[in-house]
Specification:
With about 525 residues, this protein is α/β, with parallel strands linked by helices. Helix content is about 30%, strand content about 20%. The strands form three sheets. It has an eight-stranded parallel beta barrel, surrounded by four helices. α6 packs parallel to α9 and α11 runs parallel beside α12. The longest helix is centred in the last third of the chain and has 20 residues. It is elongated. The N terminus is likely disordered.
């Protein structure tokens, strides 16, 4: 029997995308089905008898609707057709060996067969391709659903990967990828999640689960803050004496880094200094910063001592090999010597070291800025791009922070309390960690409150860097993106499973606003329901 019409080899009708001539839709999903009204009876003539086939009515389809995904796609061109749904045994093929990882992943997730590089075309194929895309956003992609097949292309494998995430969500949310063309790209290049594993130990398996979740949501950075006053949480060969009992082995970290790389997520490590080094000081008390009365400054090393710089540089050089990504966080926040009214009087040894290094006008702020610049030199030698917390940039110093340091802006509570525009007008690039919206601080100390997805979704955009007020839109190009952050100040306040549940909707709201900072098309109630449907 020859099936008339233009639908031979196409997939079954998807939910809400068309209709049959009757209510019978019992054929296998993804098969080329004939409307029951055109069905052949037992006495129907066959081509073997030399007679023409009986014409069948043209099947009708409503215009497709844009897929419902998180984050929402930026553009969808509707079309009439049945869409596509996976059928076991159908193929995922690639046109370039560089897409093998993306091909194998989506094939496994949708129950398809990964067939590698193929030039032939078959019904039901999902084809992944690289295109020239000169000048295009490297994370952009185009997904075309037509003729019972899916084609996903992009200028890089990252873009193609994001296309596969859209396809996965379409299938999980409605069973069928709608007919038409999706053209999609992120508004912001930095879409991050930062996790404090120093104050609270998180298992490798839990972190791997978050990596998979982040990848499906099109996040592209995972920050790991693994050194602080309460713990140092990754195995060390150069200084094993500083490592906490509960920690990740280097083998576990490598698995996390590799899993993240397969999902186009860069792991951004942070060894915060010269403050927040309590775990290092516990093993090396001689490095503790003390004031003129001999009182210890919590978590701070004495930066007038060369040994303090040596141990931090040892660690930076060691972990640069474990974290091969292009990004690094140098920390630099809350150095106790600069959180007093008169640093020179309180810490005369630092004041003396500043004068010795920078001349009679040298200050404790100059010495601290010089410390960060020296650590930046250590990491720059490994080819990294570096960020520093905004309170690591000090006003009025003769020593200027290195020009290539990005500002990780988290708070307006810092000593000196400078507005974001002060950094932006100086030409700095900024990553938005706004603590009023994006800080999930365990136990809610110091007037922190667990952020809600609804508040992020309805009130925050990447331009809202501090508090609730947006910076002028002319600075939009300097704001690279943002990062949701989990800090474990009161580590026992939640289990790691409670953390996962608590950040679920805030993560989804954050990435929606980083992918498309415009007003969302769905209400919060609709968005939350969609998140439940997608899983």
């Amino acid at each position: 029997m020859i099936i008339a019409g233009a639908f031979a080899g196409t997939v079954a009708l998807g939910i809400g995308l068309g209709f049959w001539a009757s209510s019978d839709d019992s054929g296998p999903a993804g098969s080329a089905q004939q409307p029951p009204s055109a069905g052949r009876s037992a006495a129907a003539p066959s081509a073997s008898h030399g007679q023409s086939p009986t014409p069948t009515p043209t099947r009708s389809y409503a215009l497709s609707k844009a897929p419902r995904t998180i984050p929402a796609v930026r553009s969808h061109t509707a079309a009439r057709g049945p869409g596509w749904r996976p059928v076991r045994g159908e193929r995922v093929v690639v046109d370039d060996a560089d897409l093998a990882d993306e091909g194998r992943l989506i094939a496994g997730e949708l129950g398809l067969t990964y067939a590698g590089e193929k030039n032939d075309v078959r019904a039901g194929d999902v084809r992944l391709a690289l295109n020239d895309g000169a000048g295009a956003n490297p994370e952009s992609y185009t997904m075309t659903v037509r003729g019972g097949r899916v084609n996903i292309s992009g200028p890089t494998d990252a873009g193609v990967f994001y296309g596969t995430r859209t396809l996965k969500q379409e299938v999980h949310g409605g069973g069928t990828a709608p007919e038409g063309i999706v053209r999609d790209q992120p508004a912001k290049a930095v879409r991050g999640f930062m996790l404090d594993i120093a104050r609270k130990h998180f298992t490798a398996g839990w972190i791997e689960d978050r990596v998979r979740e982040l990848g499906d949501l099109k996040f592209n950075q995972l920050g790991l803050h693994f050194s602080d006053d309460q713990g140092f949480r990754i195995e060390s060969d150069t200084h094993p004496e500083i490592v906490s009992r509960q920690h990740l082995t280097k083998a576990e970290v490598k698995r996390i880094v590799d899993l993240a790389a397969g999902r186009h997520i860069t792991v951004v490590p942070e060894i915060d200094s010269p403050g927040h080094l309590g775990a290092v000081i516990a093993a090396h008390p001689e490095l503790q910063l003390r004031n003129a009365q001999g009182v210890a400054a919590s978590g701070a090393v004495d930066i007038s001592k060369p040994a303090a710089a040596n141990i931090v540089d040892d660690l930076l050089n060691e972990y640069a090999g474990l974290f091969p990504g292009s990004q690094w966080n140098l920390g630099g926040d809350e150095y106790r010597a600069l959180m007093v009214s008169n640093p020179a009087a309180s810490y005369p040894q630092l004041a003396a070291a500043a004068v010795n290094k920078y001349g009679s006008g040298g200050t404790v702020s100059d010495l601290t800025t010089g410390w960060l610049n020296d650590r930046a030199d250590t990491i720059r030698a490994h080819g990294r791009t570096m960020r520093v917390w905004n309170d690591g940039f000090f006003r009025g110093t003769s020593v200027q922070p290195a020009k290539d340091l990005q500002v990780a802006y988290w708070t307006g509570k810092e000593y000196g309390a400078r507005q974001p525009v002060e950094y932006l007008s100086a030409g700095r690039k900024v990553i938005n960690y706004n603590d009023e919206f994006l800080y999930y601080v365990l136990g809610q100390p110091n007037r922190f409150f667990y952020p809600t997805g609804q508040r992020i979704y309805e009130q925050w955009t990447p331009l809202v860097v501090r508090g609730t007020q947006a910076v002028p839109s002319r600075y939009d190009g300097q704001i690279l993106g943002g990062s949701f952050a989990v800090w474990c100040d009161l580590a026992g306040s939640q289990t790691q499973d409670q953390v996962a549940a608590g950040i679920r909707m805030p993560l989804r709201a954050t990435v929606q606003k980083l992918w498309d900072p415009g007003r969302p098309g769905l209400s919060w109630t609709q968005f939350k329901a969609l998140a439940g449907k997608l899983g």
